[in-house]
Structures are given as C-alpha cells and as structure tokens.
C-alpha cells in the first residue's frame, strides 16, 4: 500500500512538473508597428501570425499598431523604461541605426537567411553588425498623370529624362492643363526629405554620397547647397500646389494627386503612396513613372532611382522572450508571407524568393527595371535624426521667406557638426 501511494505521489509530481514546463513555454510576443491595422497589409500580418502560432504552440503574437506620427516618441519612452514590446518595426537608416543599443544583435541568428534577403545595411551599425530583419525595399519615384500630360499637349508615353525636359513639361502643364506640376505635402517636412534624396541620387557622385554618410560632405558644400537652392527655386517657379507647409504628405498630398489636381508626385516604390495605389485609383494605363533627373547630373548614363532597405523588425534587449522574438522577426521575411505582402500591398519585398513575374503594372515594371540596374543611396537615410528634424524646419522656413539658402545651410552645418560629435 505504501509503495502504491509513493508511486501515485511521484506520478502526480511529474504531472505537475509537466504542466509547469508547458506553461513555461507559453508566451505572448508583443509587436509594435504602424502597419498591422491597415486593411491593405492585414493579410500579410495575419499570415505571419497564423504560421508562427501554429509552429509554436502556446505562443501568442499580439500586434499593437501605434500612430505613425508618434511612433518614435513612444518607442523612445519604452526604451528608456526598458519595458514594452518584444519586437519593433523601424525604418532603415538613422531611425534604426541610432537605436541599435536597445536592440539584439542578430548576425548569428540570421545566418541561414542572410543570402535570401537584401537591405541589411540599413539596419546595421558602423561595424556592420545587423539589428533588424528587412521586410521591404523602399525608394522614390516620380509618378505622373498621363491624362494631364495629354491635356497639356505632351506625349503621355514620353517621361522626361532630363531636368530641362521636366521644366518644360511643368511650364506646359501650368499653362495648358491649369494644374500645379507637383503635389507636395511638407507639413512634417517629409516632402523636403523626398526631394533631397531624389535630386541627390543623380546630382551627387557615389563618392559624395559616401562622404555624406560619413558626415564629411557638408550642407554648405556645393552639391548639397545646390539641392537646397533648387528646393526654393522650384517653389518660387510655382511647381507646387498652394499650402504645401500645411499639407500632410501622407495621405493628403497623394489624394490630391489621385484626384487629378496635380500632374506629378514624388512617391514611394513600396507599401503605400506607390504604383499599386495609384494604378487602382487612376487606372494602370493612366499612370507613368520615372526617376527624378538632376539639374546637373553627376555622371553620364541612365537616371538612377534612390532605394535601400525600407522597414524591418528589431528585437528589444528588454524582451523576456528574445529567442522566440528573433524567430518571429525572421518569420516576417519568410517567402510565403512576403509573397502575400507583395501581392496585397504592392510591397517590394526584401526576400529574393518572391515571384514578381506576374506583375502587369507599367509603372511597377519601370521600378523593377531600375532596381536591377540603376540604384543610388537614399541621402536622408544617412542623416542624423537631428539633421533630419532641422532640415524639416529649414525647408519650411525657406518657403515662408523666413530664411535664405545661405542661412539654412549654415544652420544645418551646425547641427551636422554637433551630431557628429556625439
């Protein structure tokens, strides 16, 4: 009897240990982003969640969509408190690179997918260590309304290949079509970011782009000052709709373009404000696309498109489930999920395993062709966040006449120098 009782007690203890072990595997991974609640991207996020939870019984993926305009403030608060999300979505470039101290280094964990995914450099520190898994490739393209080209007496199938051609088109559009040449939203300063990177792609040499990233090419140097001067000159020439400084880039600028109130817009190549969205609203045959030429090209050859790693998922150092979180970050780049991201949202995927052969959009084909031959750095990705914020402010002051080009670049030189000392 005593022996039987001992066996039963031991069995009960083992059962309790098994239950405890099972519960120890239970976890909720909290994922911060600004995209999961968007109907366009929802199928992608649902796919990742379903696949990951099926592969990891007891694990729950909890998406928390944060407001985009407050995202980095909220993230800064979470990092300072060392509590909150297990994974965070970040933009490539300075937004990721200036926060690597709060993220888990991923080099060993991503070794098995590194050759199948591109865009790692935008999520790496100065030594090349990687801190986020890229989801998309992002870049800038000029889109135009072919009906407005026809109305202005222009050939809708002939996109401008030089700055002089673009200037001539803008003059014709203003005179004959009766609309602004470009839609522009610069309330947050994002319009100025897009303009800077679009012109720098063809106005700066590769060496100058490298110097810019290193902080040794300054705002007052001729190549950069020329872009700032052109920003003001295009405003004075009347290229843009009225009220640019009070217009949101996302999505007021792009809705204005889609309503036919402007002939061009500098849009994205992936996710939003891009070929897929414009095609669906205007009709694929009504949308043209071209990379922005520069007033003074830095080199001969085809006009280049600025692009780089777009957005990616990082794992926080304060996550209590780092191994699971790393596995989830990699799942976001899984080919099956990336295929849905491409098809539902028109994202240009970071995964090289996605099949894009069925794409029929004429403007998307222009984008894909440029990805294969003619890329350049995204200049504003290689600015410190302090510089980006000051450029936003100075770009607005230039439009209101509260500063000059010389005044703006002098102030920006000061901010650049201060950021470099940190």
Automatic annotation (TrEMBL):
It is found in: Periplasm. InterPro entries: Bact_solute-bd_prot1, SBP. It holds the Pfam family SBP_bac_1. The keyword Signal applies. GO terms for cellular component: periplasmic space. It comes from the Bacteria. Keywords: Periplasm, Signal. Residues 1-24 form the signal peptide. Belongs to the bacterial solute-binding protein 1 family. This is ABC-type glycerol-3-phosphate transport system substrate-binding protein. It comes from Prosthecomicrobium pneumaticum.
